[in-house]
Specification:
Blueprint: H1 2-13, E1 20-24, H2 29-32, E2 39-43, H3 59-77, E3 82-84, H4 90-99, E4 104-108, H5 115-120, E5 126-129, E6 145-147, H6 162-169, E7 177-181, H7 188-199, E8 207-211, H8 217-220, E9 229-232, H9 239-244, E10 247-250, H10 254-263, E11 267-269, H11 279-289, E12 294-295, H12 303-314, H13 317-330, H14 335-347
Parallel strand pairs: 1-2, 3-4, 4-5, 5-6, 7-8, 7-10, 8-9, 10-11, 11-12
Helix pairs in contact: 1-14, 3-4, 7-12, 10-13
């Protein structure tokens, strides 16, 4: 999560700074933040629905309690700066901070900026972009500085080379390694296409690292067959899998693409077509145009098409090497530290 990466980097850069995180009660933050070393507040915020717009009626009941709680948080914490990293809990707090004349900074992860970033870019002192392609969609204010420092991730461990990573996973050293995953919840279409390929013997000559997602583990866990296939609900930590892989098959969420580029993994990106404002497609297109990945739309995804895309990369070492180099050129493994340094400079 970008907010956690930035918070950790702020403390590493200046131990006198105390980050306080704010999230939504019904978001992933509710289970994640209690396990992290930061104080936090959870707000009664609701998502903003685009397709099922009638569900936004819930905001009528939560708007005033949410506004009151934002005011209480700001009065209690008296922050020197408020940093928004997107999400539906960010906008109400940013609005309260702006009304209280507290400086704002934003971190936008995607190639097409979200509503919160577009709304507050004019009022923010800093906007940090994960993709430089996002800048034309913003209308910054006269005192807004735009930075394109990349997305804040946990940087690759320099001691974790390919051979070391494969040995740690118990993989054969010479076989090509394909990493396929769809995030913590998995990706139904990617899982189905991958199972079709495996059932047909299309990946018998490679080692497969497969993250099915927690919800799909019962269905696809049967494919676990080490050392040929390592199937897990979720790769956590995922750094060792990135370091071992020759090719990755993944969604094109902002943090996934940032990690793929930081590790220099040639990737086949299959965007989630229902993502807000189709931002995953924008991310995949940006990296494909830079030569850092292959874009495979979900509408064209079949087992045969997926296998062809994998084989095209595995059978072209020179092209794969070039794609890895271009991914690395887009990678910003030190983004969290650089963003933290810019934020600290603004606070001072």
């Amino acid at each position: 999560m970008p907010a956690l990466a930035i918070a950790s980097a702020l403390v590493q850069c200046d131990s006198s700074v105390e980050p306080v995180l704010v999230g939504a009660r019904r978001g992933v933050e509710a289970s994640l933040l209690p396990r992290r070393p930061f104080r936090f507040h959870l707000l009664p915020a609701e998502p903003l629905y685009r397709r099922t717009w009638w569900r936004n009626a819930r905001w009528a009941a939560t708007l005033w309690p949410l506004a009151a709680q934002c005011r209480r948080v700001l009065r209690a914490e008296r922050p020197a700066l408020v940093v928004g990293t997107g999400g539906y809990a960010a906008a109400p707090l940013l609005l309260g901070a702006w009304a209280s004349r507290i400086p704002l900074a934003l971190q936008e992860q995607n190639a097409f900026p979200g509503l919160t970033t577009r709304w507050f870019a004019r009022r923010a002192r800093q906007v940090h972009l994960g993709f430089p392609e996002a800048e034309p969609y913003l209308r910054p204010g006269p005192n807004t500085r735009i930075f394109a420092l990349g997305n804040p991730i946990t940087p690759p461990d320099p001691s974790l080379g390919r051979a070391t990573a494969r040995a740690a996973l118990g993989l054969p050293p010479a076989a090509p390694v394909v990493l396929a995953f769809g995030g913590s919840q998995g990706a139904r279409r990617i899982n189905a296409a991958l199972a079709e390929v495996v059932d047909a013997g299309g990946l018998d000559r490679v080692t497969l690292l497969w993250g099915t997602g927690e919800g799909s583990w019962e269905r696809y866990g049967k494919y676990h067959d080490p050392p040929r296939r390592l199937v897990r609900p979720f790769w956590d930590p995922i750094g060792v899998a990135y370091a071992a892989a020759d090719v990755a098959v993944a969604r094109s969420g902002a943090m996934t693409t940032a990690e793929l580029c930081a590790f220099g993994v040639p990737a086949i990106l299959i965007p989630l077509p229902t993502a807000a404002a189709d931002h995953q497609t924008r991310n995949a297109q940006a990296l494909a145009q830079a030569g850092a990945a292959t874009h495979l739309p979900e509408s064209a995804l079949t087992g045969n098409r997926l296998l062809q895309s994998i084989n095209d990369l595995l059978n072209d070492p020179a092209g794969r090497s070039q794609m890895a180099a271009r991914a690395l050129a887009r990678g910003q493994p030190d983004a969290a530290r650089k963003i933290a340094e810019a934020i600290l400079a603004l606070m001072r």
